[in-house]
Amino acid sequence: MTHLDDAKNWLAQDPDPITRDELAALIDGAELGEATAIAGLRDRFGSRLAFGTAGLRGELGAGPNRMNRVLVAQAAAGLARFLLDRADRPEGGAPSVVIGFDGRTNSDVFARDSAEIMAGAGVRVTLLPRMLPTPVLAFAVRHLDVSAGVMVTASHNPPRDNGYKVYLGDDDQGAQIVPPSDGLIHEAILEVARSVAVGDLPRSSEFEVAGESVLDAYVERTAAIAGGEQREPFVAVPFVYTPMHGVGWEVSQRVFAAAGLGEPTVVAEQVEPDGGFPTVSFPNPEEPGALDLAIATANRAGAELIIAHDPDADRLAVAVPRPESATADSAGWRRLSGNEVGALLGWRAAERLQREGQDGALAASLVSSPALGAIARHYGLDYRDTLTGFKWISRTPRLRFGYEEALGYLVNPGTVRDKDGISASVEFLTMVGELAAAGRTLTDRQNDFDALFGAFASAQVSLRVTDLSRIGQIMSALREQAPAEIGGVRVREVDDFIRGFGDYPPGDILRFWMHGGARVIVRPSGTEPKVKVYIDASSEQGSVTERRAAAQAEVAALEAGMRALVA
Asked: Coiled-coil ranges per the record (predicted)?
């Protein structure tokens, strides 16, 4: 099937000259029988980006399996229909939406298209005034008390990607969409695509562009995390900051100053927004080499800490100098894992609750370290493991802190109901400054943690695929013939989430419990063409050094075993 008719129909309604030229060339080639052109049409029109885990997310290009102005227009119209159908509108009031965008290619175009189409459909629209971080949009949903929020971003995905992330207000309190809303929005989008050409969708320029008050309020509320005049003794620690070519610097700089955290040394090559991300292969601080420029800057500046955000600033990465006694790489720095940062911030949240005589809950995604659960038990707090994603973490009743190992932290749920790299930076920098004032370091704090709760070790195996069918094959093989042992460690029990498990809804997840208490979880990535494996082990026996060695040795054995299984 060449999809020629589908492509011609799409071309007739595409307002973007770049994707029109791309598609016209493919159509011409397919009509001449060129195999690459036929394959290109099949790739673009053989399926459609589904509105699901993170809204829409995909590579820029023509066709329904790409991010482009036609697809975004259909998404905006479908979301508007969903909001108009569900809204409780006393006296005929209209539902409302706030729309934000980052610095990726076409983010501003997609945002304006969405504003015009949703306004044309009868939704009250507020467009944020310029490219801003995702946490500002998530904050604005609650601050403006609107029905929904849209953020045009692909977060830390490759440079050629973009996406469309949706939040709901009202009873959802500014959290990301979950079932059944995502399915209903998807069906509304499909109905638009089937019944209306994009050029026939009504548009309106009668929407509001937000003033600076929204950003001012976010800065004020986020800086307040540092405690102001009420905080513990504090010494500002010199640090380096990079937004990784994203939109984090303007807002972070204001927050750092308002919180009294000092002025960082910025990575000059990465401080301005640039959707091409020219200095990194992947704009994700988890990727090897992504922090190389930050490390070089820190070495020149004599900094004691590196703070990095991903391009939309909803994730936080931290790097610290390696101890002199450790085997250092040539740069002499180590990035803390998301589990390490999550455990330190979670411990801090639990201590604060105890000090203030308050109660509450901690939460983490089920693929994150069990360390946060140990903290909750120690302090008598509620704890919940959730499915991956902050749309689930943020919905935990009485939540006071939540995190996931992929560098996402929710430290201020009363303000932002999503992960927020900027507020997490404030909390982390405040913690480091308080330690410094007491003559202590992060290493001291981590030693105290392992002595109190046990040593926790984690690792990941990430298998990127070019053929998406390979993901299903790997998961099916593990289900059909579950391993009896992994890396020489016997499997005690297997939990399969495919039809739901316990209180969890159905999901493509396998969890292996090992004899001795370690855990291995396998699942497809929700946003990238990968199979991801999460490995966790812990030890409470012996000294801190012995505990760490035991946990790390078990994780290493399990990692080697899983690489052999899924390679």
From this structure: none
Q: What is the mean pLDDT of residues 433-452?
A: 97
Q: Are 23 and 11 in contact (CB under 8 A)?
A: yes
Choose the weakest-confidence range: 227-236, 304-313, 376-385, 487-496.
Answer: 227-236
* CATH 3.40.120.10 domain locations along the chain: 68-211, 212-452
Q: Which residues of 280-291 are buried (b: 16+ CB within 10 A; e: fewer)?
A: bebbbbbeeebb
Element (H, E) at 460: strand 455-464
Which pLDDT belongs to residue 2? 74
Assigned token pair, 364: 């983490």
> How many residues belong to the chain?
567
Q: Long-range contact list for 551-554, CB < 8 A, 24+ apart?
A: 551/455, 551/456, 551/457, 552/457, 554/457, 554/489, 554/516, 554/518
Q: Cα(457)–Cα(555) distance, rounded to whole angstroms?
A: 7
Percent of the chain with pLDDT over 70: 97
| pLDDT-wise least confident of 50-54, 223-227, 231-235, 450-454 | 50-54
CA-angle at 428, arms to 425 and 434, nearest 5°: 135
CATH 3.30.310.50 residue ranges for the chain: 454-566
When pLDDT is averaged across residues 249-276 and rounded to a whole number, the result is 97
Contact predicate 406/544, CB 8 Å:
no
Q: Look at residue 89 in the predicted model and tell me its pLDDT.
A: 52
Q: H-helix or E-strand containing 510?
A: strand 510-514
Residue in 283, 251, 270, 231 with CA at minimum distance from that of residue 432: 231
Residue closest to 346 by CA, chosen among 431, 421, 415, 403? 403
Quick one: pLDDT at residue 109? 98
560: left (phi over 0), alpha (psi -120 to 50) or beta: alpha
Q: What is the DSSP letter of 170?
A: G
Dig out the tokens for 271 from the structure. 């401080």
pLDDT (average), residues 332-352: 97
Q: In CATH, what class is 68-211?
A: alpha beta
Q: Is pTM, for the whole model, over 0.90?
A: yes
Domain 454-566: top CATH class: alpha beta
Second CATH level (architecture) for the domain 212-452: 3-Layer(aba) Sandwich (3.40)
Q: Under a CB-based contact definition with an 8 Å cutoff, are residues 335 and 285 in contact?
A: yes
CA–CA gap between residue 446 and residue 433 (Å, rounded): 15
Of 96, 107, 155, 181, the catalytic one is 155
For residue 236, what are the contacts with CB-CB under 8 A and spacing of at least 6? 260, 261, 262, 433
155 is catalytic: yes
Longest dimension (CA), the chain: 74
Q: Is the pLDDT of residue 48 over 80?
A: yes
